[in-house]
Design a protein that fits this description.
Strand content: under 5%
Structural class: mainly alpha
Distance between the termini: 70 Å
Number of strands: 0
Shape: elongated
Helix content: 25-40%
Radius of gyration: 28 Å
Length: 63
């Protein structure tokens, strides 16, 4: 006897949303491409701001 997780008379009618979901996904895709080229990448807080402190000595490098 096989385990039945979904009964035989079950019908998933998810394709009825295709007239809305396909154009919506195309609009979201095109908007993300447009934002990528107009705004650019956000590298997060790791690559913004900060202070560089450099010091010169007369000694040779440690390594």
């Amino acid at each position: 006897m096989l385990l039945k997780l979904i009964p035989d008379n079950t019908h998933f009618r998810f394709m009825r949303f295709r007239t809305i979901s396909f154009p919506l996904s195309a609009v979201v895709f095109l908007a993300s491409i447009a934002l990528f080229f107009s705004v650019g990448l956000n590298f997060g807080i790791d690559f913004k701001g900060g202070t560089v402190f450099e010091m010169k000595t007369n000694e040779s490098p440690a390594d």
